[in-house]
Amino acid sequence: MKVVQFTIPVSRESTIVVQEEKLPHYYPHLHRHREVQIEWVVEGSGILVAGNYMQRFESGDIYIIGANQSHIFKNDESYFNPEEPRQIHSVSIFFDPNYLSQNILSLPEMANIRKFVHGVHNGFQIPEEAREAVQKIISEIIHHKESQRVAAFIKLLYQFSTTRELKPLATSNSEQVISEVEGIRMDRIFQYLVTNYKRHISLAEISEIANLTPQAFCRYFKKHTDKTFVSFLNEVRINEACKIILSGKFDSFSDICYQTGFDHVTNFNRVFKKTTGMSPGEYQKGFRDI
């Protein structure tokens, strides 16, 4: 049986590690690493979970994942269909914030960048209006070597530190102290939910997967996600519903309701509006008008 690691080691051969990859899908398990990760999703789609944050990711998105922040870029089901092979294209930049702060960022001129790096614990999403400039600098980093690469990287950090309205990911960093064993357990819970969300999942059923009593599971899940089990499961379902609406491949909203695991259309509409701030019809119209 394959061993699933929660803490993933990253090469320590240089100040920054740059990885450009084209793969069938992202690493499909919840994990963390001591380095901050800058992730450019050149091509790909799915659900990003980072701490207690959950939202769809699409091609072109750029994220900053905090050091030791548990996360997973979970691709859509279609990426795991061997009959219709797809691929993701990503650029990942890893750096140790402590090492950077003790060396390059210790210079007086780096004060604002140092402040930014110290504040990325919970991660950020880069706003759409800043993507083009960030993508251009990341491309420079990819093509440069040695000192020129480091110079371009500092330029990237400066861009981040001066970008307005960075969107925070997680709202709490309490989950960052999670142990290796707890991380693997949370991954097992998450994998079960995203695999079975289309049907009813009882509290007793998911508690058994976690090897906890229902009462203990509720406390455990709330502690590590800052959400109830039901609200987390509903977010998984609504994210999938959003994907279906954007694809346009559905006959009615009631079809989406039952496809994503909801028992009643009324409940689906209520949860959809609570999660996205708009009704399914308004959501569809909003993207038609873009």
From TrEMBL:
Domain HTH araC/xylS-type: 187-286
Superkingdom, taxonomy of origin: Bacteria
SMART domains in UniProt: HTH_ARAC
Keywords: DNA-binding, Transcription, Transcription regulation
GO molecular function terms noted in the UniProt entry: DNA-binding transcription factor activity; sequence-specific DNA binding
Keyword Phosphoprotein: no
Keyword Transcription regulation: yes
Name by which UniProt lists this protein: AraC-type DNA-binding protein
